[in-house]
Amino acid sequence: MRLTGAQALIKSLEMQGTEVMFGLPGGAILPVYDPIIDSSIRHILVRHEQGAGHMAEGYALATGRPGVAIVTSGPGATNIVTPLANAYMDSTPLVVISGQVATSSIGSDAFQECDITGVTMGITKHNWLVTDPADLPRTVAAAFHVATTGRPGPVLIDVPKDVSQGSMEWYWPESIADLDLPGYNPVTVGDPALIRRAAELLLTAERPVIYAGGGILKAQAYDALLELAERTGIPVVTTLMARGAFPDSHPLCLGMPGMHGNYTAVTAMQRSDLLIALGSRFDDRVTGRVDAFAPEAKVIHVDIDPAELGKVRRPDVGVAGDCRLVIEAMLEALDGLGLGGRGASGSNGNSPAGSAASARPDLAPWWGRIHRWQEDFPYHYEQSDGGAIKPQMVVETLRDLSPVDTVVASGVGQHQMWASQYWRYDYPRTWINSGGAGTMGFSVPAAIGAKVGRPDRTVWAIDGDGCFQMTAQELVTASAEQIPVKVAILNNAYLGMVRQWQEMFYEERYSEVYLSPDLPDYVKWAEAMGCVGLRCESPEEVAPAVEKANAIDDRPVVIDFRTDAFEKVFPMVPAGASNDGIVVHPSQEDRPR
């Protein structure tokens, strides 16, 4: 069967089970858009290519399946560089297809030419410039394989216009061996000897903490993590990228560590004698000053990417492998060492006399310290009657009035931290955010992609006024495509996190951070984009507005919450400081630590 390159490309996407792709046509990619008309794949026309990339990310994060985006050459391709960098930092599987000028024109500075494979070499797992239509099926299959195996991440396929217009004899690669990926062989099964050493180390710890990262979600290891925690009675912290990987409502959950993590999670890690790092990468926002981080802790580090082992903190036991498979093997090792069944906090589980587990230290004293921290240093804010709306109160109201499995997408800044702190994440893949790159403008398009992937779920975008102004035009896409997302703007009229730093560290010299609460008029802007627009200016208006928004399911809704401009995010570990220097809410400063 003879097909054009464009037809072969679309058919290859269909063979990979692609249900939806996000894109914007242009000259170089135009031949590929013709067969889309006859394809089973839903195409969502975005208003900016950055939106296409973030939508694909939101789709991938909400579903666990790779997101697909398609753009044209030149500025179309460069506009999706930010989502590629974002996905690379957060290990999100994306397949991006870009158009390119004809092969005969490459290198001639042709109209809308850009060396996008060169530009994206450092922010993709791999990229391909296809020069023969016959290579397209193999390349697409390889791209999906690379994006979704090992440590997930983004890939890019650059398709010159003459390649998409050329012809080829259709085929489909039958096995991985046909994909021409020399040297690509991700390690998934951990070394049994190292896993047993990790299990033995776990049984000697008096102050252990499980440090769960985003790799738990990538590996679908949440059930295994739950069993490990319940079996051992070890407290669990979930990083910003792992929110929902372990239920916040579980008594073993300490919440989020890091620069704006809760005091208990940060301090438990700092005082621990063993960190069991599972799919986490010792990010600087978690460690604070590295040489002062968890100084008494031994480290078990499990990661699918061998390059992460020892990159920041040298592990005592480093296991390269898939988190789910390694945790399951660790549970088997614990069985062999005599630790079976479930151990409540402070207990040793079911440990036969004479087993290694029977000599395990009692965790009750450790849990006693943890419970005291939880009582003395909870998240805290003060909402006064008749005062300005506190952003934390908005998040709590959204949480309490929305379904328990609501998907939350956030932008980046203060509102991101409040959304992570004050929502309760009890289900995996319900928290969609930009972690490593910290990309403002992520929330709205990511929420749209998440809603496309999970149309059965309520999807709230919690955004800041600064972030919202960067990508709000994608609500036109949502309206046109009937994607009923809901957006809560925590409008404090500032670039809030920058303002907080300037207040705390730059002697209140507020340089270029004021945005204005009224310009633009968010209600009118929302209505102009086909959305329902609402505004809240007092605390008593918050709950009715949220209830009204949750009742609307035929179009997007935007609520402009006029929040307290002077509210700051606490706790906070100042940049470059030790986690021991964590700054708590002013009302807690005098409490003994």
Question: How would you describe what is shown here?
Answer:
The structure is a single chain. The chain is of the alpha/beta class and 593 residues long. It has three domains: 2-179, Thiamin diphosphate (ThDP)-binding fold, Pyr/PP domains (Rossmann fold), CATH 3.40.50.970; 192-376, Rossmann fold; 391-562, Rossmann fold (3-Layer(aba) Sandwich), CATH 3.40.50. Helix content is 35%, strand content 16%. It has 23 helices and 20 strands. The strands form four sheets. The protein has a six-stranded parallel β-sheet with strand order 3-2-4-5-7-6, sandwiched between helices. A six-stranded parallel β-sheet has the order 11-10-9-12-13-14, sandwiched between helices. Helix 1 runs parallel beside helix 7 (136-148), helix 3 (49-63) packs parallel to helix 5 (81-90) and helix 16 crosses helix 17. The longest helix has 15 residues, at 49-63. It is globular. Residues 343-348 have low confidence and may be disordered.
Task: Report the CATH topology name of the largest domain.
Answer: Rossmann fold
* Tally of alpha and pi helices: 23
Tell me, briefly, the overall form: globular
At the fourth level of CATH, the homologous superfamily of the largest domain is: TPP-binding domain
